[in-house]
Amino acid sequence: MTDPTPTSPAAPSQDALLAICLFAAFADGEKSDAERDQVRRLADEFGSENLAVLSRQILMRKLPLESIVANLSAPQDRLLAYEMALGVCEAGGNVTPDEQDFLNTLRRLLNLGETEARTAEASVDALALAPISTPALLPEANTPPDNDGMILKYSILNGALELLPETLASVAIIPLQMKMVYRIGKSHGIELDRSNIKDFLATAGIGLGSQMVEGFARKFMRGLGKKVGGKIGGGAADQLTGSAFSFASTYAIGHIAGKYYSGGRKLDKSNVKTQFGSFSQKARELHSQYLPQIQARAQSLNPTEILSLVRGKSQI
């Protein structure tokens, strides 16, 4: 029996945007197994048959990209689709040839003008491809770093970003997590690059592309569809769920990085995953305690400050 077409007459653009995120996550064939596991978990969590069906059809090549794009008639939805796809493909830094081929095809199918596409690319690139090093903001050589305090600040910031309706706010979360890990490694005398950090995150069982898909999915999965400034936003309960997730994942990544780099990178993969789950659970309990600070931080954020934080020109 074949899968039904998952798009809903009530909200075809919502399903189409989700499908394009999944296409982007699966564009690099080497990541398919990891991304499939993450999507399966998301489908279970959200209780979404659409998500499960979409991923199955895309992986089995039964759902043409052309048919998905056809459901996006509004210009702002087409531009948003390209923004989101860029965010997923650039989550780990450099785009692979397969991902670039997908983005080129998507841009053509979306019929985006040169100016529109370049503007979207510049916005996403400024966040996703920002340097991870922040030498001017590192502590003085003789000043012991307060990594626990720094991790909490990054966790609060990333929890706040999930409360914002703009899609690009979600794109900033992974670069900020990578910047945090860089600073933790540096505090232990280890000079990291983007590839080292990706390897560490993979050891912890974190897929960058799937994490980006999850962030986007939380913004519009549960029948949300509310437009804010041309972007899709969510209800208060769903925003708090996304905030708790980003707060917890950032908190866990930071503390595992501290153990990993202070211990000479000797933690085995199963141990790292176990500890990641433990730190994530602790952080979810802490989220409600720090929620007033997270909400206050969200109210103070604007696109210029977010970009400055990601580029390391402002202190966390």
What number is the mean pLDDT? 80
Q: Outline the low-pLDDT stretches.
A: 1-11, 222-235
Number of helices: 15
Kindly report how far apart the N and C termini lie.
52 Å
* Biggest sheet statistics: 2 strands, antiparallel
Rg (C-alpha, Å):
19 Å
Strand ordering within the main sheet:
1-2
**What's the count of strands?**
2
Order of helices and strands: HHHHHHHHHHHHEEHHH
Strand share of the residues? Answer: under 5%
What spatial form do the alpha-carbon principal axes imply?
Answer: globular
Helix/strand-derived category reads: mainly alpha
Helix content: 55-70%
Please outline the helices and strands.
Blueprint: H1 12-26, H2 32-46, H3 49-59, H4 65-69, H5 75-89, H6 97-110, H7 114-128, H8 147-161, H9 167-171, H10 173-187, H11 194-203, H12 208-220, E1 226-228, E2 231-233, H13 236-262, H14 269-300, H15 303-310
Please give a structural write-up.
- A hairpin with a 2-residue loop joins strand 1 and strand 2.
- The chain is mainly α and 316 residues long.
- The chain has helices spanning 12-26, 32-46, 49-59, 65-69, 75-89, 97-110, 114-128, 147-161, 167-171, 173-187, 194-203, 208-220, 236-262, 269-300, 303-310, and strands at 226-228, 231-233.
- The protein is 68% helix and 2% strand.
- A two-stranded antiparallel ribbon has the order 1-2.
- It is built from 15 helices and 2 strands.
